[in-house]
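Hi Y.,

Following your request, here is the sequence exactly as I used it, all 462 residues.
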Amino acid sequence: MIKNAGFFRETSGLFALFLAMTLLVACQTTIEDVDKFKDAVNGHAKLMEIMQDESVEPAVRSYAAVSLIKENQVEKMYVALKGMPADQQVHLIMESARSIGELFRNPDLGTQAAAKDALFLFMQMGVKPIEKSSLEVILNWYSSSFDIKYSAGTYSAFVVLTYIGKAATPLLHKLIVDPAMQKMQSKIIKIIEKIDDPELAGLTSDYFIAQLNKQAPNFEQETLDMLRVVRDDRVTEILNNFAADKKNDYRMREAVLDTLRFKPSKLSIPAATRIFMDKSESIDMRGLAIEIIQESGDEEVVKFLMPFIRDENVKWAVFGAILKIGKEKHLKEVFDKLDPTATFWRGDYDVARRHLKNLPPEAAAVLAPYLKSKQIPLTTLALIGLQYTATPAQAEEWIKPMLEDARIIPNYHSQNKISLGKLAQEIYERIKTGADKQKEIKQPAENEAEQVKTGAEEATEK
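Below is the corresponding structure, written out as C-alpha cells. Let me know if you'd prefer a different format.
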C-alpha cells in the first residue's frame, strides 16, 4: 500500500507537469493567431502587442511586424518597434528582413511601397547589419517605373533619395538622361538640387550641355527652367555668352538671362554688367542684368553702377542693387548722386521704401543729415529710411523737430497734400511704438529628410 502511494504521487506530479506544458503550448501565440487578428476588431493594435511581447516566439513577432507592413500599416509597425528595447528592435528587424524583401516581389504596388517605407525607417534607425542591403534594394526598386513609384507609399522618392544622398547618384543620372522620364525631370532635378553633390551636378550638366547644343539657338523653356535649379560653371558660361551676344534672338536672350538670375554666379557678372551698361538694350534685359549683379554681392561692380543713378529708366534698380550690395557703405554717395530736380512720384517713393527698409540700424546716422536738405525729395527719402533704422531716442532728436515743417511733398498723394511735418509725425509715432521694428525670425530648415515623422506630423513631398 505504501509502495502504491509513492507510485501515485510520482504519476500525479508527471501529470501536473504535462498539464502545465499543454496549457502553456495552448496559450502560446502562433502565426495562425496573427492571421486571425489581422481581420479582427482592433486587430492592428493586437499585432503591435504581439511584436512587443517578449514571451512570444521571435518568428511570430516578426510575422506580426511583416503582417502590419503588408496591411499598409507601416507607421503602426514603426511605433511598436520604437517601443521596444534597442537590442530587441535589432533582433526583430533582422528576423523580418528576408520576409520584407520578399514583399518587393508582390505585384501590388502598395505592398512594395510599404516594404520600401519600412526599409527606409530601418535605415533612419541606423540598423547597420541591413543598412547596405536596404539601400541597394530601395535604389533597385526605384530604377524601374520611377514615374509610377515616385509618390508611392508614405515617403516620396524626394524624401527617400535626398536622405540616401550621394549613393543615389548613379540612379539619378540614369533617370535624368532617360527619355522615358522626361515628364519627371522637374521632380528629378529637385532631388539632385537637394543632394547638392558636385559629381552629380557635373553629370547632370553633361546632359544639359548636350541638350543646349542640340536645341540652340532656340532653347526649350523646360530645359531653361531646369537649369535654374542645377547647372555647373560650364553651363553658366554657355548661357552667359548666349545672353551677351546681340546676334541671338532678343526673346531667347531674355529667357536665358532670366535663367541666370536664379542662383546667380559671379561668372555672370561681366556679361550682366555689359548688358546693363548698354543703353540700347531693353529695360527688361537691363532689369534682369541688374538682378544678377546685385545678387552677386560683388563690391567691385558698384563703381560701374553708380553713374546710372541719374538714369531715370533704371535709377531705382541701381539704387536697390547698390544698397543690397553695400548696405549703408555707399548710402551717402547714392543720395548725393540722385537728381533731386527730377519728378518724384508716389510710386518712386514706394520703390525706394522697399530698398530702404532693409538697411541696418547703422544707416540711420547717414540718413539724418538729409533731414535738413533743401531738396524735399531727399528729405522725404531720408524720413522713409529712418522709419526702419532709427531708434526712439534718435527719432526724438532728429524727427520730432520736423513735426511743424509745412513744406508740401509734391506728388506724394494723388488727392491730399501731405506735408513733411505730417509724414514726420506718422513716422515718429511708428518709431516710438516700434510698429516697424524689424524682427529677425529664424526660418525652419527646408529639409524634408532631416527627420522622419509619423501620422499627422509627417510632411512629405508628393
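The CA atoms of residues 162 and 351 lie 39 Å apart.

Thanks again,
Q.
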